[in-house]
Structure formats: structure tokens, C-alpha cells
Design brief:
The complex is a heterodimer.
Chain A lengths: L5 H18 L2 E2 L4 E10 L2 E9 L4 H8 L4 E11 L8 E14 L4 E8 L2 E8 L2 H9 E9 L8 E15 L3 E6 L3 E2 L3 E2 L4
Parallel strand pairs in A: 1-10
Antiparallel strand pairs in A: 2-3, 3-8, 4-5, 4-9, 5-6, 6-7, 9-10, 9-11, 9-12
Chain B lengths: L2 H38 L2 H4 L2 H34 L5 H37 L2 H36 L10 H15 L3 E6 L2 E7 L11 H14 L1 E6 L8 E9 L12 E9 L1 H22 L1 H49 L14 H43 L3 E5 L5 E4 L1 H7 L3 H4 L4 H4 L3 H10 L8 E10 L2 E11 L10 E7 L1 H42 L5 H30 L7 E4 H11 L7 E7 L5 E4 L1 H18 L4 E10 L2 E8 L6 H6 L15 H11 L3 E6 L5 E8 L26
Parallel strand pairs in B: 12-14
Antiparallel strand pairs in B: 1-2, 1-5, 3-4, 4-5, 6-7, 6-10, 8-9, 9-10, 11-13, 14-15, 15-17, 16-17
Helix pairs in contact in B: 1-9, 3-4, 3-9, 4-9, 5-6, 5-8, 8-9, 9-10, 15-16, 18-20
Classes of the chains: A alpha+beta, B alpha+beta.
Chain lengths: 189, 758
């Protein structure tokens, strides 16, 4: 006798897994993205934004401990459409990874875009570190070559701040809300 | 199931179990290895977010798997119980016990282990440790800060000494070099250099400290630029070239004229202080230890989560493994038992072809094998029984046919007294219908006075195997009938009071025929016996008439002789008639206890010297000294037998009177060494008027036979060894309770060996 068919079992397991995964998923911190500006220069989308209230005591202590500390930013280039399912055009991931050398009292910051190292910077001051990891001005985000010049686009950005543990042992990813830029056309630049 | 299939099945099971155990062992080994390796890895490796999520999802999957297995088992058992499947209760208990045994220890242990783990974490970050590490790090920081401040101060002092010198003026180069060398010695620094902007002009270093060359300007460019920009700057070179230890660089910049900052490059003084290798190492270790501690503290929550998840994963793996094994073990037990229970139910419903198809190698397997063997045996037995039933039915039909056609009536009476069956002959003899007899108690079927005699005979106590024979005269259906009734007990395997079988033989016509034949014989013999005396009487009468007619002078003598002859023959006729009267009117026996030895002696004494050369002897065995008998009739029996023996025995010869016990019977044997009796005569000597001697009435042995019959005995004639005859009279040793003589005795019922009076 088989009280449950295998496909029923599979559906129940996946559903439960999804529920648990959702519960252990993202948490909304105090940090937020502000001053999101976009500009089109030479058919490239340049992005500027600030992440504020991200560096709390936990993050400061983590950086001072010498551990690699990462703030990652997810950027989405969307078409300005009402239908949600055809908006997403392109995504990019920007990582700012800081490491503190306690012997020389210097912070090394590596910036990666989509996995490629684009810049390394050394600072001695923590404020400089925070400034470097949270303030981006004129960052080239997407190449707009081939995009329809008459279409309107917008950019969405959010920051991922790491993982916190709910109840001490359930990992939850910390991320800010998505912030949307003004709408723009390729020909605006 | 053939051997190959059993082997493959067994191999499959073993492989599964072995595979499961190997997998569990591998997982445990992997977890142990990971934990061991994790101790040596940097903390961030152990708290990697990906690792945390992987662990978390593995645990979720394990939890879901266990929950699924338990829920599935629960519902399966629930459905089985609702459907009342045989063995489901036992299976539920067994599965519940097995799961409890696997879950309870782990459930009890897990909270303790968790608590222990958390306490251990708290101990790691106990306050004293934290303070010590922080203070040590503060000391190391203070050392670095002081070195940097001291370097900046000295750089400022040197800058003030050289600020007025035109660095590009070659005439002042010598003075600059002297001054810098003196200042390096005075200020006790290990390295001193002057830069025009970022271009090196002159530098001096302590060769004894290990400096071989000037630092690479490219590596110092950023420091020099900061110094030019901010007036001063410092830097720590953790691993300088050529020298060991840490190099603390401090730079100070200034311009000779402050009016035009961009017109001339700034003068930059760079001072280097080398921290000796041992101190540098100590500082580095302090910083490293502090950072490691800080990393641990920062990752405390992640570490705790990772260890908890690891512990939870191992716990869940153990639960999963033991739950699976428990369920499998439970299934290994319950499946054969359930199959056996179902098999038993099917067999009880008559399905003897059912075989339990479960393969197990333990005692349950033996039970299954025995069950299947038992079922096969039952099937074979039932087949045999069916065949035997068919044969029995055929036999019964044959017996019924035989019974229906035999002249004798046959009845079967059950242990409870019910008449089970009877054949048509019995119904005809008893003058009853079948519905008046069959399936009715004998007391009801034979309640009338006549048939009650038959019922009483049937109810006489008998031991198993004993046969009882009687003749009954009954008036049935208005006819007077003589029945020969034989009663036999039915063998009873249950050792209860068995039933009876009655065989009825209607002797009425036979007895009539026998009587007719006997009377014919009697008439013939009487006529013959009467004719013998009548002839002399007639001859005497005729002679008297002739003598009288002839006036014979001797008539008186002839008359006297004739009268004498007639008188003698008439007396002979009278004696014969008296014998007839005695035979017909045998007196009622009056039995008493008789001393056989005295009787034998008396009889022997009477016959002494009757026939010289013939010896008379007596023998009375122990236990046969007395007999309960009518004395006169016993004397008559023995005298008759003794007379016959003496007459048959020629000298020299021997005659023995012998009494002995045979069971509950007393035997009187008259054994002679005479000429013996021919086989055909042995059957006829007891018939009235039968004689082999050619004289006498022929009633002697007939009277003996009747006397013995009246005393519930029998008389048997046999051959003695080496020659002669044994006439054996067999009577009950003690007085029978019912001493009433039988009304009749058949005239021809003296068989060769076992003639009975009945």
C-alpha cells in the first residue's frame, strides 16, 4: 500500500522548503540607498548613489577584526513597462571588499564588478573606508549600446549587507529595499 | 522459491543494509574530518555564509525527510488499522517502539549537547580573556603610535635644519651630507633622507642595522605625496627590503619660501626607525592574536550557528539512520508475521493452496517454512481424506447394499441410546417402520414389553470388543418369533461409553424346521424302538394262538414263556417311556456349592473294577475345588460321561477326571485314552436318540447337554493326545446373578469346539 504518491511527496517537500527558505531569507535593516542618480555618457550608464546607515558597530568591529568585509550592490537595468515579467534587461553586481591590516593600520579595499577587479584602494582612515565603500559617483554600470533609443529605462539598486542569524542559528540574508532611479532614455546623454 | 532467487534477494538486502551503513559511516567520517579540519581553518572559512546556508538547507532537507518518513509510516499504520488489516496493531506497537528507541536517546542527548556547546562558546569569550587580549593589543598599538610620533618629531627637527639649504646647489651638497649624517647619529634613527619633492637628494642609513641601499622611491611615492600635501605623514613598512623587523617611516615637508608654493618643490625629510625583529614579531603576534580573537568574537554568532547546525545535522543523520533502520527492522519482523497471520486466516477459510512468500533467514523464516510445510501437509491430508471419504462413501454404499439384502437384521445404537441405523431386514423382523426406529431412543422405539426384552439385552454392560449372544422369544406383530440376538460393542476411540451393534436372526422358521426334523427322527426312532419289543410280543401272541388252536399239550409252557416274553418287552417299553418322561420333565436345578474332590472320589469308587486294566484318576487344581451346581444333576452329567469313557476305553487305558480354572470358568474334563469319536459324530452325539453304541435310548448325552445349558455352561468334545477323547464341561465358577435357565436350547447347537448352550 502506498498512501502517498511520490509526486505529492515532492510537491509537499518543495513547498515546505520554499516556506522555510522564505522565512530564513532576507531581513530589512536600517541601511538604505540614497541619492541614486543616473547619467548617460557616451552610451554608457553612469551611476551615483550613497549607502547610509550601513556601518553599525557590528560592521565596524568586523572590519577591524581583519576579516574580509563585503558590501555588495545589485544593479538592475529595467525597461519601463507595467508588466513585471518583461522589465528585467540586465543585472550587474558591484562588490566592495575591505580588509584591515592591523600591523600597518591600513585598509585595503577591492572593488569588483561582476566578479572582475576594477579597483584597489588603500586608506588609513576609517571614515575614508566608509566613504569609499558606500559612496559611488559616476560608476559605469551598463553599456547601452544596442538599446532602443526611444525606450525609457530605469535603474534599480539595492545593497546586500551580509548574513544575520535568526534565533541564533537560522541564517538570514540582510538587504536594503530596492531603490529606483528616474526614468531615462539612451539618447538623454 | 528456488535457491537462486533466495540468494539474489538475500544479496540485495545485505547490499542495501551494507550500503546504508557505509553511507552513514562515510557521512560521520566526513563530518568528523570537517570538524577536525575546521579547527585549523580561519574563522571566516567556518562561518562562510554559503557554508551556513548549505548546512541550513541540508538540515531542512533532513528534517523534512525524517518528518516525511515518520508521517508516511504513521498514516500507513493508521490506514492499515482503519482497514483492520491483520497484524496492524502488532506492527503499530513494534514500529512505535522502534522509533521511540531511536528517537528518545537522541532527543534527550541533543539538548544537553547544545547546552554544552553554547556554554563552551561563552567560555571562549569570557571577560578576562577579552581584557587581556585587548590590553596587549593596546600596548602594541601604543608602541607603534609612539614610534610614529617620535619619527614625525625627528623628521620635523631635521627639516628645520635643512630647510634653508638649496638642495640642487652642488656646492652645498657636502655640507648637507655632513649635517644629515650628524643628525642621524644625534637623533638615533636608522634611516634619514632628504627629498626634493619626491626626488631623492641624499640619504644615510645605519649599515649596522642592515641597510644596504636606499628605499625604492616608488614605494614611498604615496607617503611623500601625502607629506607634501599634509605637511607630514607616516607609514609602517611591515616587511622592508634588506632588513628584518618593522620600519616606521615618518615624513615632514616644508618650503624655503612660503610665498610661492608652486614655484619650487617642497623639501621632504624622511626618517626611518627600525623596530628590531624580536619586538616586531611580538607586536605582530599580539596584533594577530587580537585580530583572531576579534574575528572570533565578530563571528561568534555565525560560529555558534555553524556548530549548532553541524550538531543538528549529525543528530538528524543519526535520527534518519536509526529511524530508517528501525523501520526496516520492524518491517523485517512485521512483514513475515503479517504474512503468516494472513496465511493463517486464509488457511482457516479453507484455502490450503496458500503459501507465504516472504524471505527471511532467521527464526521467522523457519516459522514461514514450517507454516508452508504445514499447509502443504494439510493439503495433502485433505486430498487423502477426500479420497478416503469417497472410498468410504463407496464402501458405505456397498455395506448398505449388503445390509439391505442380508436376511439378518442389523441395528446400530449410539452411545446415548439412540438407534442410529437399521436395515430393512431388522425392520421386518421387528415388525416396525423406519420412522418408528431410526433416530429414536431405544427406550422409545422399543417401549412395549416384548421389544423391551431386546432393549434390556442391548443395554447389558459389556466391555469393548465383548460379544453377547442370546436367543429371545418375542411376540412381534402378532407372531411368535425366536430371535438369535448378538450384541457387540462399537469401538470408541474417545474411550466413552460406546455404542452397540445388534444382529438379529429370525430363527423361527429354522427352529420349526429343526423341530420338525427332530420329531421325525424321534418318531422314526420311537417307531424303531417300539417295533423291537412289539415283534417278540406279536410272535409270542401268534405262537400262543397257534398252540392254543392246535391244543398243544405244551400250551401251558408256551403260555408261560409267551407271557414272560410279553411282560419283559412291555417292561422294556415302559422303561423307554420313563426315560422319555425324565427327558421331557427335567427338574428345576437347585445349585449348591459342591466339593469336587469328594464328588470325584465318590464317582471313581463307584466305577472301580468295572473294567480291569482301565485306570481311573482324579485331579483337582487350585482354585477349582468347588463349583456352584445342582449336585444330583452334576452327578448325572459326570456319571454319564464316565460311563461313556469307560465303555470307549480298552485295557490298558486311563481315564482322568480333571477340574481346573480358565478365567472365570470352571472346567470339568473327562479325558480317556479310548478309541475317540469321529469328527462327524462329535456334532451329533448330543442329539436325542442318537447313539453309536447300538443300544440304549440315545438320550444320555442329550440330557447332559441340557443340564449344562441350564447351568449357563457349555460342553465341548475334543481329541486327546496321543489318542482318546476330551469331554470338557465349562460352567461359571461363581453362581451367576441371573440363574434363570433359558427356555429353550437348540437341538443342533453343539458345534465341534465351542458349542454353547444358548
Amino acid at each position: 500500500m502506498r498512501p502517498f504518491a511520490p509526486w505529492i511527496v515532492a510537491v509537499v517537500c518543495v513547498s515546505l522548503l520554499a516556506v522555510v527558505a522564505g522565512a530564513s531569507g532576507r531581513s530589512r535593516p536600517e541601511a538604505r540607498i540614497e541619492a541614486l542618480e543616473v547619467a548617460v555618457e557616451n552610451r554608457r550608464l553612469m551611476v551615483s548613489f550613497h549607502l547610509v546607515d550601513a556601518f553599525g558597530d557590528d560592521l565596524r568591529r568586523r572590519v577591524d577584526s581583519g576579516l574580509p568585509t563585503e558590501l555588495s550592490y545589485e544593479l538592475e537595468l529595467n525597461r519601463d513597462r507595467k508588466r513585471w515579467f518583461d522589465k528585467d534587461l540586465e543585472t550587474s553586481r558591484l562588490q566592495a571588499i575591505a580588509m584591515f591590516n592591523a600591523v600597518t593600520s591600513e585598509y585595503l579595499i577591492n572593488f569588483k564588478q561582476d566578479g572582475r577587479l576594477i579597483e584597489s584602494r588603500m586608506v588609513r582612515d576609517r571614515d575614508d573606508l566608509i566613504e569609499a565603500m558606500t559612496h559611488f559617483d559616476g560608476l559605469p554600470a551598463f553599456d547601452l549600446d544596442g538599446r532602443d533609443a526611444e525606450s525609457r529605462y530605469l535603474l534599480r539598486v539595492r545593497a546586500r549587507l551580509g548574513v544575520r542569524n535568526a534565533f541564533g542559528w537560522i541564517p538570514r540574508s540582510l538587504a536594503t529595499d530596492w531603490i529606483e532611479s528616474r526614468k531615462f532614455r539612451v539618447g538623454d546623454g | 522459491m528456488d535457491l537462486r532467487r533466495r540468494f539474489l534477494r538475500h544479496r540485495k538486502d545485505s547490499r542495501l543494509i551494507l550500503g546504508g551503513l557505509v553511507a552513514l559511516l562515510a557521512i560521520c567520517a566526513f563530518v568528523y574530518y570537517t570538524l577536525q579540519r575546521g579547527r585549523g581553518l580561519p574563522a571566516q572559512m567556518a562561518t562562510n555564509n554559503v557554508l551556513l546556508f548549505v548546512l541550513w538547507y541540508i538540515n531542512i532537507i533532513l528534517i523534512l525527510t525524517i518528518v516525511f518518513i515518520l508521517v508516511r509510516s504513521f498514516f500507513r499504520l493508521l490506514i492499515e488499522r482503519q482497514n483492520r488489516i491483520l497484524g496492524s496493531k502488532f506492527k503499530t506497537r513494534l514500529v512505535a517502539t522502534a522509533i521511540s528507541l531511536s528517537l528518545i536517546p537522541v532527543m534527550i542527548l541533543f539538548p544537553f549537547a547544545t547546552r554544552l556547546l553554547l556554554d563552551s562558546f561563552d567560555q571562549w569569550f569570557a571577560t578576562p580573556v577579552s581584557e587581556v587580549v585587548a590590553e596587549a593589543h593596546a600596548a602594541a598599538d601604543e608602541l607603534a603610535r609612539r614610534l610614529e610620533e617620535d619619527g614625525l618629531r625627528k623628521a620635523g627637527l631635521v627639516l628645520r635644519q635643512v630647510i634653508g639649504i638649496d638642495l640642487l646647489d652642488l656646492s652645498q651638497q657636502a655640507d648637507l651630507q655632513d649635517r644629515l649624517q650628524r643628525l642621524r647619529a644625534d637623533l638615533d634613527v636608522d634611516f634619514l633622507a632628504v627629498y626634493d619633492g619626491t626626488e631623492p637628494i641624499y640619504g644615510t642609513a645605519d649599515v649596522a642595522a642592515g641597510f644596504r641601499r636606499m628605499p625604492d622611491p616608488r614605494g614611498l611615492k604615496r607617503l611623500l605625496e601625502r607629506a607634501i600635501e599634509d605637511g607630514e605623514a607616516s607609514k609602517v613598512v611591515a616587511e622592508p627590503l634588506d632588513v628584518e623587523g618593522q620600519l616606521y617611516l615618518a615624513a615632514a615637508s616644508g618650503r624655503r619660501s612660503s610665498s610661492d608654493a608652486s614655484a619650487e618643490p617642497a623639501t621632504v625629510v624622511l626618517v626611518g626607525t627600525l623596530l628590531p625583529p624580536d619586538l616586531a614579531d611580538r607586536r605582530a603576534r599580539l596584533i594577530d592574536a587580537y585580530q583572531s580573537y576579534l574575528q572570533l568574537e565578530v563571528q561568534k554568532e555565525d560560529l555558534r550557528a555553524a556548530y549548532l547546525l553541524n550538531l543538528l545535522m549529525v543528530t538528524l543523520l543519526v535520527i534518519l539512520a536509526f529511524t530508517s533502520i528501525s523501520l526496516r527492522l520492524a518491517r523485517r519482523v512485521t512483514v513475515p508475521i503479517q504474512a503468516l497471520a494472513e496465511g493463517t486466516q486464509r488457511v482457516s477459510r479453507g484455502d490450503l493452496d496458500h503459501q507465504v512468500d516472504v524471505e527471511v533467514d532467521d527464526e521467522l523464516g523457519r516459522l514461514v517454512t514450517d507454516f508452508n510445510h504445514m499447509t502443504s501437509e494439510l493439503r495433502a491430508s485433505r486430498t487423502l481424506l477426500d479420497r478416503q471419504n469417497l472410498e468410504l462413501a463407496a464402501s458405505n454404499e456397498r455395506i448398505a447394499a449388503v445390509l439391505a439384502n442380508v436376511a439378518a437384521g442389523v441395528l446400530a445404537i449410539g452411545p446415548e441410546g439412540d438407534i442410529l441405523t437399521c436395515n430393512s431386514a431388522a425392520l421386518a423382523i421387528l415388525a416396525q417402520r423406519e420412522d418408528e426406529v431410526v433416530s429414536r431412543p431405544a427406550s422409545e422405539a422399543w417401549s412395549d414389553p416384548e421389544r423391551a426384552k431386546l432393549r434390556e439385552l442391548a443395554e447389558l454392560p459389556l466391555v469393548d470388543g465383548q460379544r453377547l449372544g442370546r436367543q429371545l422369544q418375542l411376540t412381534l406383530g402378532g407372531e411368535w418369533k425366536t430371535l438369535d440376538v448378538k450384541v457387540t460393542t462399537l469401538p470408541d476411540p474417545a474411550a466413552r461409553s460406546g455404542g452397540r451393534v445388534l444382529v438379529l436372526e429370525d430363527l423361527t422358521e429354522l427352529i420349526k424346521a429343526q423341530k420338525m426334523a427332530a420329531w421325525n427322527e424321534v418318531a422314526r426312532r420311537i417307531a424303531h424302538e417300539i417295533k423291537n419289543p412289539l415283534t417278540p410280543i406279536r410272535l409270542a401272541a401268534e405262537r400262543l394262538l397257534r398252540k392254543h388252536g392246535a391244543a398243544d399239550p405244551n400250551f401251558a409252557t408256551t403260555l408261560e414263556r409267551g407271557v414272560a416274553t410279553i411282560t419283559r418287552e412291555v417292561d422294556s417299553l415302559k422303561g423307554m417311556v420313563d426315560e422319555f418322561s425324565r427327558f421331557a420333565r427335567m427338574p428345576e436345578p437347585r445349585p449348591t456349592t459342591i466339593d469336587l474332590a469328594a464328588l470325584f472320589d465318590e464317582l471313581v469308587h463307584l466305577h472301580l473294577d468295572i473294567k480291569p486294566g482301565v485306570e481311573l484318576a482324579t485331579q483337582v487344581d487350585a482354585g477349582a475345588e468347588t463349583v456352584f451346581f445342582d449336585l444330583e444333576q452334576l452327578k448325572r452329567v459326570l456319571l454319564n460321561l464316565l460311563d461313556n469313557a469307560i465303555e470307549a476305553t480298552e485295557a490298558p487305558g486311563r481315564i482322568l477326571l480333571h477340574s481346573h480354572r480358565e478365567g472365570d470358568r470352571l472346567h470339568f474334563d473327562v479325558i480317556d485314552s479310548g478309541r475317540g469319536i469321529r469328527g462327524a459324530d462329535k456334532e451329533r452325539v448330543f442329539l436325542p436318540y442318537y447313539s453309536t453304541k447300538g443300544r440304549g435310548t440315545g438320550l444320555g448325552l442329550a440330557i447332559v447337554h441340557r443340564i449344562v445349558g441350564d447351568h449357563h455352561g457349555e460342553i465341548v468334545i475334543g481329541d486327546a493326545e496321543p489318542r482318546g477323547t476330551i469331554v470338557s464341561v465349562r460352567v461359571p465358577h461363581t453362581a451367576p446373578l441371573n440363574t434363570a435357565p433359558l427356555n429353550t436350547a437348540p437341538l443342533n447347537t453343539a458345534p465341534r469346539d465351542t458349542a454353547r448352550s444358548a
